[in-house]
Write a structure and sequence with these properties.
The chain has helices at residues 124-129, 183-186, 226-234, 239-253, 309-318, 338-354, 374-379, and strands at residues 11-15, 25-27, 32-35, 40-45, 52-55, 61-71, 74-84, 90-94, 106-110, 112-113, 130-131, 148-149, 153-156, 176-178, 194-201, 206-219, 272-275, 288-293, 302-305, 331-333, 358-363, 368-369. It is of the alpha+beta class.
C-alpha cells in the first residue's frame, strides 16, 4: 500500500460481524466447553469437481482476561469482561441459557493451543478430556489439517494457513494491531486517525462498539520486504510480538511450506498498523476496549443509538456523517482535522464512562496450552 496515499487524519466508523461465537465441545467432568479455532473451509457437494470456499464469519466473544483498565480515570489491574475478537481457542462456560437481545450466552477465557495436530480419532487421551460428539471436524486445534466427510459435504485442507481466521483488530499484550480487514477502505488514514470497530443494526437503529483504535505507527512493506517484516515478529524476543505472529500474520501471509503469499493483488496489500497505547499515546489519545470488572453483571456492547445525545454531539463535529444503522461496509467519517478527531475520541471515552463502562488499555496475553493442560487450567478459572 502506498504510504503517499495516506493523507487524512480522519475518523472511521468500521463495521464487522457482531454475532456471538457458539461453543460445542464439552470438557469432560466440567461445566466448561472447548471452543475450536474459527476457520474457513473449502467444500463442494459430493461428487462434483467444482470446489468453492466458504467461511465461518469473524464473530465476537464475551471474553474474560486480566487487564489494565481505567475506572473513574484511575488505572486498575484485574479481571475484566468485554466483547472482542479472539479467533483462536477459548474455554467457554454458559452464563445465561436464554440471554436477552445483545447479551452474551457464554463467557470465554482466551487460550492459545500450541500449533500441533491433535487428531481426535487417533488420540484417546485427548478424547478422554474433550467430548467431541458435537464437533464438526476431526482435528480439534488446527482444523486446516483434517479431512472431514459426511453424506452431503466434503471439507478439505488448503495448501496454506489462511483458512484459520485471523484476529483483527488484535488487542493483546503490549500493542494494538490492525492488520488487514477492509484496509482498502481505510487506506487514506494516516497517523493520528481514529478507527471505531463495531457493528451497525439497521432495524434496531444503533451501532455497537467493541474497540476504539488510534493509529500511532504504520509499517508498510512490498514484495521485497514482506518476508523480513513478518520474520521480525516471528523471531522477536517479545512474547507479544510472537503471539501476534502466531495468531494473525501467519494466517494472513504464510503458506504451510513456509513461503509468503504473493502480493500481486492490490486489494490484498496491507499495512501493519500499530495502535497508540495508554503508555504511549498519540496527541493525547490511546486505543482501548470497553469493559467491566468481572464481578459486575454481563453487559451488551457499548451502543450509540439513533436520536441519542452522543450521536448528535458527534455529528456536530463530523457534519452528520456518523450512521448508527450502518451495516456490512465501514464508512469513513472524513474529518481531516486532528483537533476534531481528538474531540470525537474524547466524546466517546466520556460517553463510555458515563455509561458505566471502563476503558481497557492492556489485555494480558492468553496462555499457551496443550489439550492435556486443560483439566488443571480449569481448576484455577475465576468463574
Amino acid at each position: 500500500m502506498n504510504r503517499k496515499n495516506r493523507i487524512n487524519t480522519g475518523f472511521f466508523q468500521f463495521t464487522h460481524p457482531g454475532g456471538e461465537h457458539k461453543a460445542a465441545n464439552k470438557i469432560a467432568g466440567t461445566d466448561y466447553y472447548f471452543k475450536e479455532w474459527n476457520y474457513r473451509f473449502k467444500r463442494a457437494n459430493e461428487g462434483k469437481p467444482n470446489f468453492y470456499y466458504a467461511a465461518n464469519n469473524h464473530l465476537r466473544k464475551y471474553l474474560r482476561s486480566k487487564a489494565e483498565y481505567l475506572k473513574n480515570d484511575e488505572l486498575h489491574e484485574g479481571y475484566v469482561d468485554f466483547w472482542g475478537e479472539w479467533e483462536p481457542n477459548s474455554i467457554a462456560k454458559i452464563i445465561n441459557k436464554n440471554p436477552a437481545e445483545a447479551e452474551p450466552k457464554y463467557i470465554n477465557y482466551p487460550v492459545f493451543v500450541e500449533n500441533k495436530e491433535y487428531s481426535l480419532s487417533d488420540n484417546k487421551q485427548v478424547q478422554s478430556i474433550i467430548d467431541v460428539k458435537n464437533s464438526d471436524h476431526n482435528n480439534l486445534c488446527v482444523p486446516d489439517i483434517h479431512i472431514y466427510t459426511n453424506e452431503k459435504v466434503k471439507i478439505y485442507d488448503r495448501l496454506n494457513n489462511s483458512n484459520l481466521q485471523n484476529t483483527d483488530p488484535y488487542i493483546w499484550g503490549d500493542n494494538f494491531y490492525y492488520t488487514c480487514c477492509k484496509q482498502d477502505q481505510t487506506k487514506m488514514l494516516k497517523e493520528g486517525s481514529v478507527i471505531l470497530f463495531g457493528t451497525g443494526y439497521k432495524k434496531r437503529q444503533y451501532y455497537e462498539i467493541d474497540t476504539m483504535f488510534v493509529i500511532s505507527k504504520i509499517i508498510s512493506y512490498d514484495e521485497n520486504t514482506i518476508k523480513q517484516t513478518i520474520e521480525r515478529f516471528k523471531n522477536s524476543k517479545n512474547p507479544s510480538d510472537r503471539l501476534y505472529y502466531n495468531t494473525v500474520l501467519k494466517y494472513v501471509f504464510v503458506r504451510h511450506d513456509g513461503s509468503i503469499a504473493k502480493l500481486d493483488n492490490e486489494k490484498y496489500q496491507f499495512d501493519i498498523i500499530i495502535g497508540a497505547t495508554y503508555d504511549n499515546p498519540y496527541n493525547g489519545m490511546y486505543s482501548c476496549f470497553f469493559c467491566n470488572p468481572s464481578e459486575d453483571t454481563a453487559k451488551p456492547k457499548l451502543r450509540i443509538g439513533s436520536g441519542t445525545d452522543i450521536l448528535k454531539n458527534i455529528n456536530r463535529i463530523d457534519d452528520r456523517n456518523f450512521n448508527p444503522a450502518i451495516n456490512t461496509y465501514g464508512k469513513q467519517v472524513v474529518v481531516n482535522n486532528s483537533k476534531k478527531v481528538h474531540e470525537i475520541w474524547k466524546l466517546i471515552t466520556e460517553y463510555a464512562k458515563d455509561s458505566d463502562y471502563c476503558l481497557g488499555v492492556k489485555a494480558e496475553l492468553p496462555p499457551i496450552l496443550t489439550p492435556y493442560d486443560l483439566p488443571e487450567y480449569i481448576k484455577h478459572l475465576k468463574y
